[in-house]
Structures are given as structure tokens and as C-alpha cells.
Amino acid sequence: MEALRNAFDFSDSPRVDLVIAAMVAVALLLFPLFSPSSFAIATIIQFFIFALYGMGWNTIGGYGGQVDLGKAQYVGIGAYTTAVMLIRWDIPFWVSMPIGMFFSITWSFIIGYPLFRLKGHYFAIATIATSLVLKDLFEIWDFVGAARGLEISPIKYSPPDFLRLIFKQDIYYYYVIFGFFLLGILIINWFRRSRLGFQLRAIKDNEDVARSLGINVHLSKVKTYAIATAFVSMVGSFHACYIKNIEPEDTMSLDISILIALMAMLGGAGSLWGPIIGAGVLIPLKSYLKEWLGARGGLVGIDLIIYAAIIMVISAREPRGIWGIVERVRRRKRL
Amino acid sequence: MEILLSSLAAGLLIGMALALVALGLTIIFGVMDIVNFAHGEFLMIGMYTGLFTAQATGLDPLFTLPVAALVGFLLGGVCYYGFIRFLIRGPMVAQLLGTFGLMLFLRNLALLIFGSEDRALHHGLLVGRSIDVGMGVIIPATKLAAAVLAIFSFWAVWMLMNRTHVGKALTATALNPQGARYMGIPTEKMNALAWGIGGATVTIAGALLVNFWSVNPFVGLLFTMIAFTIVALGGFGSVRGAFFAALVVGLIMEFPGFWDFFSYTFDIQWMYDIPMTSFKYTWVYLAYFIIMVARPRGLFGWKH
Asked: B90 vs A315: CB contact, 8 Å cut-off?
């Protein structure tokens, strides 16, 4: 009951934020009714997906200060569990998604216990290493289609299939992921006001002091890592049904992991709205840059160059991201 | 037996070249406590430099090393003064993602300029030649030359770090930046110098590697991970550790060869069935994970 009340309690955010958030939510809810192009719908679905990934990353990376660059492995576990179960045994999405989350969390415990003995750079590089090992394994594992990957053929089912999440039009996916998105915000809001959330912020500020206050630092980190993992795995399962064609290179590459960390970093790690703002800026920028510059001008890679330049400027000039700028402006106004 | 010996030789040779790749990373980390994710991209630039200088001048790629060193030194200096200087004021998270941004930037710049195709050298004094040592061990001349020159460069840097005033100043900056500043050491310049030396060594390594390794814009990440593994095993900031760790990592990369040796020698059926060659680099990543968890200080590390 307490948890539920916490999840819906936004009273510590300024009212302006809540009004803007509500307006954006209504706009997103009504947006498909104005019959936009399928490109715009696809971009917004990508935005939802990465905002959710970013929220998951934010729990451990933002509130806890543990830079995790291996989130893509959980995208892979979630996506592969759903795809394999649907293709081989016709198990619907709503059953396979929790199973995928279970696998992801189990794996996160297995690697999390040794991983969280490391700190800082060492931890970050070790998460990359585990992610790459898992990707290499999936690339030769025949049961999951090896390097070719898996394909869910929608012909076998009769869309719209709400149980298996197989649709012809993107608009169904839009509303399903929108639901996940709202749920995700509530979960993060619960998390940041929960005991665990406060423990984690204490750990971020000073680990030794946190330990001396009686916080089990290692256990708190592992628990939060599991929450982050569950988030990412859940969206990974959705990703499998949405994209319908998954391979190790697309779902588990390092680029995905970096992109996830970047969303949260750019928007402002350790804040509720940060990852959403980050995804809202980066994803449309990325797809439109690619569309305009990459495809039309024949300039391969220019979208990522601009992208990288933004990362460099942000990390050198404003390490707390866009949300950091907003807060600074507010503080100046109050003075 | 022949497989075993040639795997050993190949592993040690590649290990010596890899030592030079990791040297720059460990120097930069030792002096400034910053992990450079763009390290592999520096190597990629070194490879392109070696390749194009050799093609443009018609010289053997082995003589392009000074050009590569100059390019690397300037690259390191420019990166430091233009970017890293601002980055190190921020928190660790920003440093990590900042050098990641540098990596993406350099990689995609190379993609834009050079295109995504593999390029390799097909001419040169040593390309295609080899030395038969006996016992079935055949050593390609390019790899031998790369190993010898890598050891030479390594020795030069070691002498610079340990036997000169500049090297002492660098070490002082690494041990205690504030104290070094009080002693009149220009730490800002020392940091830039560390980046310059780091860049120069890794581009030299790139120019050596291009003799037997084809180059494309995406080659960097693999070497970044290998260099991280070496530096972790040798101990972050340790120059001597990096050398011995590189030999170990070279042998780890030849693991499929040893696997073949065992499966042939003892004729174990299930060992044949595992496609070990597709796991070539997995062992390197796994080694990093195990080393970090088991012994975070590495073999010779003094920083943790």
C-alpha cells in the first residue's frame, strides 16, 4: 500500500513540471489520431523504447553512480526468450516476458555478485566484457539461430493478436509501449522514494559513510541492478515482437549499451525526467539526421559524428545533462 | 607438437606487438587516472597512416613509423588540449562517456573519409616472406619485424620514463599531481605529454600491425578491449606489467591453437565439435572479467 502511494506521489516535483509532463502525455496519447506518417510513429516508438531503457539504466547508473555499459546483454536475453518461446512453442508474449525477466535477473545475480566488487572504470569495462562474451555465445548457439538470428513471421498468426503481440499496424505497438512507458514512470517514482533508492543515493555520495550507517552496500547494488535488468529485459521482449527479426549484432552490440547510458546521461542521470528528456532529444535527432544526411547525401556516418560531438560537448561542459541546466536556471531565478 | 610450438610462437609474437598497443593506455591511465576508450581508434588512425604513407611514397611500411609517431603525438596533444582538459574537471561518469564520444567521433570520421571496406597492404619488403625455425614453426617476417620493433619502442619509452628528467616529472605527476605542481613541475604540460607519448606509441603499433592486419574503421573496439585486458592484468599504470601481461594475452588469443593441439594429441571427440576459432576473442574478454574479479591490482599494479 505504501509502495503504491509512493508510486503516485509526485508532490516533490514543482507544479510546472507536472503540468508540462501531463501535457506531453496527452499530446503523445492523441498524436496517432492526426494520422501522422509511419516514420514519425516509428520514431516515437523508438523514443518510448529508449526512454524505458534509460529509466532502467538510471536506477543503477544515475541514482547509484555505477556506470553500466553492458545493458545490451539484457535486451538480448529478453528479446531472445520471447522470440524463441513464440517460434518454438507458441508461448504468448505476456507469459514469455516475465520468464525473460526471470532469466535476466538470474543472470544479473550471477554476474552481479562478482561485478560489484569493482568500482568506477573497472566496473564499467567489466560490464562491457560480460556483454561481449554473451554476444559471442549467442552468435554460435544454433538453438537461437546463431549469427543469422531469429525471425518471427507474422503470416502464421492472425493480427491483431493481442496475446502474442503480433500486429500489422504500428499504432497498436504505439499504445502498448505507451502503457509500459507510463508504468515505467510510476515504478521509477516508487523506486526513488523507496528505502532502496535512498540507500543507493547514499552509496553514490560516499560509499564508506553509507557502509558505516549500516547499509549493506553490495546487496543494495545487486538488488538495484536486478531492477534495472528487469526493466531492460521487459522492453527487450517487446522489441522482439515489434522488430520481429532479431540477431546478436542488432540487439546485443556495444552500441546499444552506450546509447542506453547516453540517453540518461544527456538528459540528466539521477533524476526522474532525465532519461525521458534525453531520449526525447536524441532519438528524433538520430533518426532525422540519418534520414536527411545519411540517406540523401550519401554521407555514411555523419549522423553519428554529429551525435558524438554532442556527447563530447555535453560531457565536457555540462556533466549533469539537460536537467542540470534546467535546475541551474531555476536556482538562479530563485535567488 | 608442431601445432603447440607454432601456437606458442604466434602467441608470443603477437603479444609483443600488443604490448606496444597497451603501453599508451597504461601511461595515460597512470599519469592521469583517466581511461581512454578511444585508444583503439588511435590505433586505427595509426594503421591508416602507415598504409597511406606507404602507398603514397612507395616506401616499405616499416619506414613509415616516424610519420605514424608524429601523427600520433599530435593527435594525443590535440585531444588533450582540445577536449580532455575540460573533461577531467567533471565526475567519472562524464569522463567515461566523454572518451566514448571521442571514440564514436573518430570512428565515424574514418568511416566518412575512408569508407567501410577492408584495406590491406600487398607490397613491401617483408610481406609474404617467412622464416622456418624448424620443428614445424614458421614465423612470418612481418610479425617478427613488428615484434622486434615493438620491443625496441617499448625499451625506448621505458628508458624515457625511468632514466630522464622528463620521465621523473611524469612519474611525479602520476604519484601526486598537487605535490608535483608545488615542486615546479608543469603538470598540465606533463598530462599533454602523457597523451602525446600514449598516442605516438599506439600509432606506431598501428603502423606495425598494418603489415599483417587489414584495417577498417571498426577495427578499434577489439584492440581497445585487448588493451584493457592487458592493462588490467599487468596492473593499471604499470609499464613493466603491461609487457608481460601482453605476452599472456597473446597466448590467450592463440587458445584455439592449443585446443586443437589437445584434441589431436589425445583424440578427444567432443573437443573437435566445439568451434573454438569463433571464440578467439571471447577468451580475452573472459580473461579480463576473471582477472578483475580475482586480482584487481593486476600482476604489478600500484594503483587500485
From this structure: yes
Query: Between residues 118 and 157 of chain A, which touch chain B (CB distance below 8 Å)?
Result: 118, 120-122, 124-126, 128-130, 132-133, 136-137, 139-140
Q: Which amino acid would we find at residue B299?
A: L
- With residue B140 as reference, give the H or E element that holds it: strand B137-140
Helix or strand or coil: residue A330? helix
Select from A191, A190, A280, A230 the least CA-distant residue to A81: A230
pLDDT, residue B73, reads 92
Q: Which three cell numbers stand for residue B17?
A: 606487438
Q: With contacts defined as CB-CB under 8 Å, which chain A residues touch B249?
A: none
Residue A334, pLDDT above cutoff 50: yes
Residue B239 · residue B24 · CB < 8 Å: no
| Interface contact flag, B87 A316, Cβ < 8 Å | yes
In angstroms, the CA B257 to CA B267 distance is 15
Question: Residue B78's pLDDT is what?
Answer: 92
Chain A residues with CB under 8 Å of B221 CB are: 254
CB of A189 closer than 8 Å to CB of A272: yes
Q: Is the ipTM of this complex over 0.90?
A: no
A309:B105 CB<8 A: yes
Report the distance separating Cα B158 and Cα B170, nearest Å. 12
Instruction: Indicate the length of chain B as a whole number.
Output: 304
For chains A and B, count residue pairs whose Cβ atoms are closer than 8 Å: 128
Residue A145: predicted pLDDT = 74
Rounded to an integer, what distance in angstroms lies between the CA atom of residue B101 and that of residue A311?
Answer: 5
| pTM of this structure | 0.84
Please report which confidence band the pLDDT of residue B304 belongs to, taking 50, 70 and 90 as the band edges: very low
A244: closest CA among A306, A312, A154, A320?
A154
Q: Closest approach of chain A CAs to the CA of B193, in angstroms?
A: 20
Inter-chain CB proximity B288 and A305 less than 8 Å: no
pLDDT in tens, B222-246: 888 888 888 888 877 777 888 888 8
pLDDT 10s digits, B160-204: 888 888 888 888 888 888 888 888 888 888 889 889 999 999 998
- Would the CB atoms of A136 and B101 count as touching at under 8 Å? no
- The full length of chain A comes to 335
How do B130-134 and A245-246 pair as beta strands?
unpaired
Q: Where are the domains of chain A?
A: 2-334
Cα–Cα nearest to B183, from B197, B202, B168: B168
State the pLDDT at residue B127.
65
Q: Is B275 exposed, middle or buried (0-12, 13-18, 19+ CB in 10 A)?
A: exposed
A157-161, B232-236, B281-285: least confident range: A157-161
Report the residue from B90, B100, B292 with minimal CB separation from A311. Answer: B100
Core vs surface per residue A105-120: b (16+ CB within 10 A) or e: bebbeebbeebbebeb
Cα separation of B229 and B185, whole Å? 32
Close Cβ partners of A255 (under 8 Å, ≥ 6 residues apart) = none
Q: Residue A102 has what pLDDT? A: 92
| pLDDT tens, residue by residue, B123-154 | 666 666 777 766 667 777 778 888 888 888 88
Among residues B113, B146, B122, B98, which one has the least CA distance to residue B44?
Answer: B113
Specify the CATH class of A2-334 in words.
Answer: mainly alpha
* pLDDT score of A158 more than 80: no
